[in-house]
């Protein structure tokens, strides 16, 4: 299973991020390309413990949905609502200069990949407690989902 733990997977994600242009049209969803880049930055920063995110945990989210999301051999569906702090159209950070935001996303992808499993990891807002391998799998799947949104 792909994860940001693997250097080759991080390189693949970085190349795909660089393939997105500010005017790339989404295949699904409402985000523009600059908004998607900033949303991914915010989400990775939350996973790194650099941002606080309101919880929306449930028993189903911590168990069945988490397992399916991280392990099932299917792509994530479009239309899953995000937490308000991660929603660049509501309460999240607005996109800045596209080139700078892309550079920040690449930096966060690399930080995520090399972050030690022995460091404390925050709780995921939907899935609750996750270890380093789960977080790095989630980070790959989330970023992959949004890059597919823009055919990257």
Show unreliable segments: none
Provide the helix percentage.
40-55%
Q: Strand pairing plus helix content: what structural class?
A: mainly alpha
Tell me what the CATH architecture is: Up-down Bundle
CATH class: Mainly Alpha
Q: Kindly provide the radius of gyration, computed on alpha-carbon positions and rounded to a whole number of angstroms.
A: 14 Å
What does the overall shape look like?
globular
Residues in β-strands, percent: under 5%
Mean pLDDT: 94
How many domains would you count in the coordinates?
1
Largest sheet: none
Distance between the termini: 19 Å
Protein described:
- The protein has helices at 7-19, 33-47, 59-71, 98-114, 132-149.
- It has 152 residues and is an all-alpha fold.
- It has one domain: Four Helix Bundle (Hemerythrin (Met), subunit A) (Up-down Bundle).
- The mean pLDDT is 94.
Quickly describe the structure.
The chain has 152 residues and is mainly α.
Please specify the SSE layout and strand pairing.
Layout: H1 7-19, H2 33-47, H3 59-71, H4 98-114, H5 132-149
Keywords for this entry:
mainly alpha, Four Helix Bundle (Hemerythrin (Met), subunit A), 152 residues, 50% helix
């Amino acid at each position: 299973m792909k994860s940001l733990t693997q250097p080759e997977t991080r390189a693949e994600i970085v190349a795909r991020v660089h393939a997105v242009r500010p005017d790339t049209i989404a295949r699904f969803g409402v985000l523009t390309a600059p908004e998607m880049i900033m949303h991914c930055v915010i989400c990775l920063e939350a996973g790194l413990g650099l941002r606080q995110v309101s919880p929306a945990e449930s028993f189903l989210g911590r168990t069945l949905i988490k397992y399916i999301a991280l392990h099932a051999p299917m792509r994530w569906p479009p239309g899953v609502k995000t937490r308000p702090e991660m929603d660049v159209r509501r309460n999240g950070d607005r996109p800045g200069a596209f080139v700078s935001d892309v550079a920040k996303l690449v930096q966060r992808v690399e930080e995520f990949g090399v972050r030690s499993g022995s460091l404390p990891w925050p709780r995921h807002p939907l899935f609750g407690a996750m270890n380093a391998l789960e977080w790095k799998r989630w980070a790959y799947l989330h970023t992959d989902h949004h890059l597919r949104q823009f055919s990257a």
